[in-house]
UniProtKB/TrEMBL annotation:
Primary location group: plastid
Region (Disordered): 57-92
Location of the protein in the cell: Plastid, Chloroplast
Species whose genome carries this gene: Marchantia polymorpha subsp. ruderalis
SUPFAM superfamilies the UniProt entry points to: Bet v1-like, ISP domain
UniProt entry keywords in alphabetical sequence: 2Fe-2S, Chloroplast, Iron, Iron-sulfur, Metal-binding, Plastid, Transit peptide
Residues that span the membrane, as ranges: none
Gene Ontology molecular function: any one: chlorophyllide a oxygenase activity
Superkingdom to which the source organism belongs: Eukaryota
Cellular component, GO, one term: chloroplast thylakoid
UniProt-recorded name of the protein: Rieske domain-containing protein
Keyword set includes Mitochondrion: no
Amino acid sequence: MCSLRALSAAAGGVPAAAGLKKSGPISVSVPAQVQNCAVPDFRKAAVALRVWIERGGGGGGRGARSSSAVHATLQSRGTDEEKIEEEKEEERSRSRFNWTTNWYPVIPVADFDKAVPYPFHILGRKVVIWCDKEGQFHCLLDACPHRLAPLSEGRVDEAGCIQCSYHGWSFRGDGSCAKIPQAKPEGAQARACEQTRAQAVALPLLVKQGILFIWPDESSPELARRTPPPTASCVEGEGWCAVETFRDMCYGFDTGMENLVDPAHIPVAHHMVNGGVLGKRSQATALDLEVKAEGPLGFSAEMKKAVGPPSIHTFDAPSRFTYEYELRNIKGARAATTTYCTPTQPGRCRIIVVNARNFMIGLSSGPAWWQIFPRWLDHQLMLNLLDGDASLLHEQERTLVEKSGNQPEAWAKAYFMPTTADRYVGAFRNWLIRHAGKGIGWAPGVDLNLPPLLEKKEDIMNRYSSHTQMCKVCSAALEKFKLARKLLFLVGLAALGVAAVLADPSSRIKAVIFAAISGAIGCQSGSSVMAVTSHGHNRRSTPDLSSSMYTITVGREACEYHAVLLILSLLLSSEILLRSQYP
């Protein structure tokens, strides 16, 4: 005899609804092949039991009806188990995306200052990046294991290690402790560097297409080595040139990425920026967008055009979106704009823009003597594009949180998107809900609340804090502008002094005019925060003429200082002018 409870378990279970009791062993007359089954052959016995029931085993009448009920129940149970397994498999496929096991862009290498440690946030964790004497980049969590002081406040020592500025502990790129100045040369203290608790946490880094990428999971370095970073392969061929820039924005990753995948806003939000290179409001029109394929790793799509091949668009989850297009008026001309959005902190993100093309390469910025356009100018012109919607996105994401009740899946009820021009936005939001856990995978302990709303637009538009001070190229250009400004004012004051001693009235007037021009140029080169705000506000029809200068912002104090000097120069100029006319 075999226990029917064991057989029913092997066969998927026999419920009480089939006329069997739940408790106590139940013995029945079964075929010999079932009676002689060994314990490891329960599955075979279960199959035999199914066949025996189907053939009416156990007699007719009431017994037959019970057997039919058992058979139907077993079939139903098997179907239910298959459905459950399918649902589990679907759920597993939806949760395959892992936020920590991905490469995230940090900064173009050409803009990285290798002389000092570089602080950064990734998924809410603060890290520090530096370059050693051999030119290798390294990344550690920004906390010294000694007393948790930020390593980003330290320096790169003579050995290429990062040294904490608190007590002088030094750490190698793999996180191992290289030096403890306070440790005695003998005994247990001499071996303190070898202890596990003396090690800092290291994160993988790599450089691809001129961009530094970080892998925020310290537990999977092997997986990081096998995983390629999210770059645009279309620009890796010969004959392509590219220029990159970056900026920290006052809105979160989901808002930033949603904006980057939305081509419909470009001619409106970026109306006449840089002379209208991206269009103007009157060019806003219907867009035929079609998502071709989508899944846990993003989506691919295309925008059909009335003339010519469609533009190819790719969202490489979680951070890259690339536009690929051809120019009709230049044979064989192709271009690609790759935009990255890196989740740094809740309500904050870093945008990286890469513009690449295979034509007019001679007009690109670079180190060659014939490349006359400076990189800082490329930066500022590209950053003009991020001014147009910076303030409205900062407020929009807070309105979305309010309208959706802070429920990410309720975005569709908060938005009204009746046209095909919004299909990419819907595809991104669906990816975020279905495959990415309904939101960003922030590190444990991170405060998920959005920072307070910034009422002053100059706080949102200030490029000095969001770009210049972190960019080696633009910070160097800023120092040159400050020096040039001082020289211009000195020249202007010297011209005023010369004008005071000249006897010829016409020469005096020329000297005064020269002084006024020098003072005006010097004042113009000293940018103000207010200029940035007025240009970034989208209600202006055309950009300010000083767009290439004022965006390297020094601050309000610098503006006031230059204004005082300009007023002084004008007063002196007026006095000399009057004396020349009325001696």
